[in-house]
Design goal:
The protein is α/β, with parallel strands linked by helices. 26% of the residues lie in helices and 32% in strands. It folds into 2 domains: 7-151, Beta Barrel (OB fold (Dihydrolipoamide Acetyltransferase, E2P)); 157-298, Rossmann fold, CATH 3.40.50.2300.
């Protein structure tokens, strides 16, 4: 798939293209930006004592890649079908193949159409980050970063890494963070606390974060007295991080705030999207040390 084509050539539109696929009886979605290609299944080499989600490894154009069976992730019985596909992905600076039942089509949605799932029907440990109503059907957005963190915690944010930076006194600085993943919010809280940043305000999507900042401005307060820095993910229901950054930078009252984009989608080929909306820095997950150093540089 050519990631440079499609609706996302323009940044900050609050739109997303997703690949819809079928696995274990439901329809799911993955951001097109994460998809390198979709291929027919090839022979998989099983790995002894591998994580239960791992089906094995394959060789693709000289690269050895792990294959994650999404039926195993979803707690479904594993079975092969004639329409099975391998979705080859790249995010968090790594390539991973996901085995799914079928791939149906590519959709274009606004992030405003993607609703945050309720823990009442998903549970706190769910892999679902968003729900899209598509006619009479529903498409569930999966938290692929969480799936990979469960397979290999070493690929996630680790508090131990921050300790290497040494102690610093930053407790008077207040940071606003927009991040839809509960797992990542917890990890960011712990790592920033270890780095000396104690005043952290979390929001589950860009819209809530933006409304909060607008509320400060409309109250007559100086925004930089209340918040010194904004950190945002890119993929979030209601309002994505590119659109949030764009709205902040276009606001005469908010544009003095530094904005750091912290996302698994930061790559050399996609970095220009953050630059187009005015991000002050872009750090790829899970490079927490680089994030802390960037915060130190940009915090007012």
């Amino acid at each position: 798939m050519n990631q440079e084509q499609g609706i996302l050539l323009e940044s900050g539109t609050n739109e997303v293209e997703i690949v819809e696929f079928h696995a274990g009886g439901s329809y799911y979605g993955i951001n097109v930006i994460k998809v390198k290609e979709i291929i027919m299944p090839v022979p998989v080499t099983a790995i002894p004592h591998a994580h239960p989600y791992i089906e094995g490894i394959i060789q693709l154009r000289g690269e050895v890649l792990p294959v994650v069976n999404l039926r195993k992730v979803l707690g479904q019985q594993v079975q092969m079908g004639e329409n099975d596909k391998f979705i080859v992905t790249e995010f968090n600076q790594q390539k991973i193949v996901f085995h799914v039942d079928s791939v149906t089509k590519i959709h274009r949605f606004s992030w405003g159409q993607i609703e945050k799932p309720s823990e009442m029907y998903t549970g706190a440990s769910s892999h679902i980050t968003g729900v899209i109503k598509n006619g009479g059907d529903m498409i569930l957005m999966l938290d692929f970063e969480k799936i990979i963190a469960e397979i290999n915690p070493q690929t996630s944010i680790r508090v131990e890494d921050v300790k290497k930076l040494g102690k610093r006194e930053r407790s008077n600085k207040r940071i606003l963070i927009a991040e839809d993943s509960g797992l990542l919010r917890g990890l960011l809280h712990d790592t920033l606390l270890e780095a000396g940043y104690e005043k952290i305000e979390f929001f589950e999507n860009g819209k809530e974060a933006y409304d909060y900042l607008v509320g400060i401005a409309e109250s007559g307060k100086n925004v930089t007295d209340e918040v010194q820095l904004v950190i945002t993910d890119i993929e979030m229901p209601l309002m994505d991080g590119h659109h949030l950054t764009k709205k902040i930078k276009q606001s005469s009252e908010l544009n003095v705030l530094p904005v750091i984009i912290f996302s698994s989608l930061i790559t050399d080929t996609l970095r220009h999207k953050g630059e187009m909306v005015g991000a002050d820095a872009q750090i790829s997950k899970p490079e927490i040390n680089q994030l802390i150093l960037s915060i130190d540089e940009h915090v007012l």
